[in-house]
Amino acid sequence: MRFTSIQKDRAGGVLIGQAIGDALGVPYEFGAPISVGEAAMIGGGLGPYAPGEWSDDTQMAICIAQASADGADLRTDAGLDEVAAGFLRWQTRGASDIGIQTSRVLNVARKSSGPLADVMTTAARAAAREGRAGNGALMRTSVVGLVDLGDPEATADVAARVSALTHADQRCIDSCVLWSEAVRVAVVEGRFDIRAGLSLIPEPRRTQWRELIDQAETQPPSAFDRNGFTVTAFQAAWSAIHATRHIEGPDQVEAALQTVIAIGHDTDTIAAIAGGLLGARYGVSGLPSDLVRRVNGWPGLRGRDLVGLALAIATGSQEPQYSGASMLSNYSPSLGVPHPDDCEVILGTESNLSRCGDLGVTAVVSLSRIGEPELAAAGVGSGKHAEVWLIDSENPAKNAHLAWTLTDAARTIVALRDQGERVLVHCVQAEHRTPAVALAYSRLRKAGPGAEARIEEAIGHRVDGLLWRTACQLNI
Ligand SMILES: [Mg+2]
Predict the structure, then answer these.
(1) What was the pLDDT predicted at 89?
(2) How far is the CA of 268 from the centre of ligand 1 (A)?
(3) 53 in helix, strand or coil?
(4) Is CATH 3.40.1710.10 what the domain over 337-472 is classified as, yes or no?
(5) What's the CA-to-centroid distance between 36 and ligand 1, angstroms?
(6) Which SS3 state, helix, strand or coil, does residue 364 take?
(7) What spacing in Å lies between the alpha carbon of 177 and ligand 1's midpoint?
(8) Which residues of the chain have pLDDT under 70?
């Protein structure tokens, strides 16, 4: 399947959207309920976790993602064995916490002989016969929506089989099929359709799920506060997305995540589930770049790595998709001038990344994609580097939420400045992206009229084009 630029943006948003929800929900897992708007990435929780650290939900999703990105075909038995092997490695080397049912199944599988996926599924079926139907498979299923973006049946089949590795109850499997298909549709078509997967599960369960979805849409999110069960976790996540549908554009992401976390109980899991679908719908460009910057977790990954992993699955390519290889262009003029409205913000190009020390820069906001060598050369801590998905193009179809993304980039600069950082803002050549975001920053800081001329003078050339015009019209 060939992807448009915006479909890639949305595919890249799935894992990172899940991780943001997870890390925002972690501090409140099984704790005292909080109000909408109070959730913050402060760490703590059951782990205890560092600020921005994701938990077992995203760790297990990464096991699935890595197997797929490494070339395993999850539609085959051999591919499922790879996922199962990944779960076992994770349990001993990385699991910061682990659900009761998952732990039990993995322990049985570890002592059994035979193909791993088979022995794991057999152990999971035994647990299912006791009526166990926890949310531990649903919490990691969003990424399955990327495995075969052109094929609903294949998506449903993989979702069912990956669920059954640890959670073989039919309700667990159905919830995973429905959620994975909703993610697939969101990536391909850019819309929410939680009912899209109904045709992929047999009657009479289809009727039952139709009623459960209706319930999630007619009752308030707070009704789904016992959400350790796969069905109520599904309802909690969807109810929060549905309840915030009046919020247009990417602002829905934070509204829905705050709403779902305020439900309480298994907060990281229901936010991880919701976050995967929200990321699929709005893409990397629609996720707050300051939150993407801050998430981190096992196995030593950052937000940008999750974007790269998701893209590798979606495109089936094992080439570095976002990070990894050097992406420096051969010619990139050096700039490195102070922002006219804030001398602690440095406007630059890719060349300036290797001069961060000279410039006294302590944090970087990249408006173009950079590789690991350039990030290493910049020498700022990994949590001090933000990346914004912003395409330098005159084609309005390339950036899904251009005004929002420009504003979001400016907000991230503000957040870094509020922490006392001296910030390099750069793209490749500072022709369009850097001046447009610099202007959004002036607007956000209420720097007064004439910012356009001041920025053009600072960077030494006239600016035009779609990004600049959009920044000129920002009303923030
Ligand atoms: Mg968790």
Answers:
(1) 96
(2) 5
(3) strand
(4) no
(5) 20
(6) strand
(7) 21
(8) 318-332
